[in-house]
Amino acid sequence: MPNPPKSGENPASVEAAAAILRAGRVCAFPTETVYGLGADATNPDAVLAIYETKGRPRFNPLIVHCADRAMAGVVAVFSPLAESLAQRFWPGPLTLVLPLRPDAGIVDLVTAGLDTVGVRIPAHPLARDLIRAVGRPLAAPSANPSGRLSPTTAAQVEAMFEGRVPVLDGGPASAGVESTILAVDGDAVTQLRAGAIGRDEIEAVLGRPVPVAAAGDPVAAPGMLASHYAPRARLRLDADAPLPGEAYLAFGRPAAPGEWTLSATGDLREAARTLFAALHEMDRTATAIAVAPIPRNGLGEAINDRLTRAAAPRDTR
Ligand code: TXA
Ligand code: MG
What is the mean pLDDT of residues 130-146? Predict the structure, then answer.
């Protein structure tokens, strides 16, 4: 294992990033959804550093990223239903909230003291290589200051933390929105967060409807705050055209000069991949952004969820 790079330096390899993480420091790494701010999930000081780096409320638990099903089995208890979802969707952008194994060595701060844990096996090969090289599960929220836009490139992570966080660069994220979160309690399943796998796809696999947790439900994800994923610019949704002074984010047609588009052809997969990158980009110059209506089916559920939170009233920052 090489010496970890000095703080302020980005790791040039999986091994160098693993050395940072084994030394109990945080390191951002690529996943197929968004970049994660990783730390050894079994090291209390390392996990604390995630919360401090992000300015994240301590009651908001973290997702535990595993290299493979065997590692996930050390962390959580799988019911037959959870097992079939894991078989079908892992590695991939699905997080399962399952009963925590109390002997797993996961520090309390990761689960915010809950008796459940969110686990996933990322599809990005560098993420799995990294977890394997560290030899421990990695706790990782999205690699942005709390409440801000999630990063889909290493450059966005560097910009938002002003170079204070080392980043392993794995290219732009292919999915572009966070994982879908399902709570599985025995045979019962509830969607806690819309994400990169459409609910319709999960329902097709299970052959039954998947209910969505309402805000305030006992099983709801504590992290689903009203204002979240926010650019600095003000956001106006379901806008057919920009008003004077607004930058415009189109959908289903090419961008006119000075505009952006989520997908010229109306492809929701492309729109999900483009969403955060476009908002990051527009936020550099715009103070007000108008966004075209986005259909609500399939991945449109996650896209509209992120846009609604990004547009929600918030403290001026
Ligand atoms: O795609 C993703 O999921 C990304 C990448 C890095 O993997 N991660 C991510 O993490 O989006 P974060 O921290 O931004 O969102 C995690 C969400 C929060 O809303 C949190 O409340 C919820 O997962 N969560 C985690 N553990 C939970 C648990 N035991 N019960 C309920 N919700 C949980
Ligand atoms: Mg996040």
Answer: 97
Neighbours of ion ligand 2 (CB under 5 A): 142
Number of H helices, E strands in the chain: 10, 12
**Contact, 251 vs 294, CB < 8 A?**
yes
Instruction: Give the separation between CA 141 and CA 62, rounded to whole angstroms.
Output: 6
Q: What is the DSSP letter of 76?
A: B
Instruction: For residue 220, give the ligand 1 atom closest to its CA.
Output: 31
Cα–Cα distance between 250 and 264 in angstroms, integer? Answer: 8
Q: What angle do CA 195, 201, 205 make, to 5 degrees?
A: 130
Give yes or no for a contact between 41 and 106, defined as CB atoms under 8 angstroms apart.
Answer: yes
* Helix/strand/coil percent split, the chain, to 5: 30, 20, 50
Ligand 2 centre distance from Cα of residue 61 (Å): 11
Q: Specify the DSSP class assigned to residue 148.
A: B
| The model's pTM | 0.92
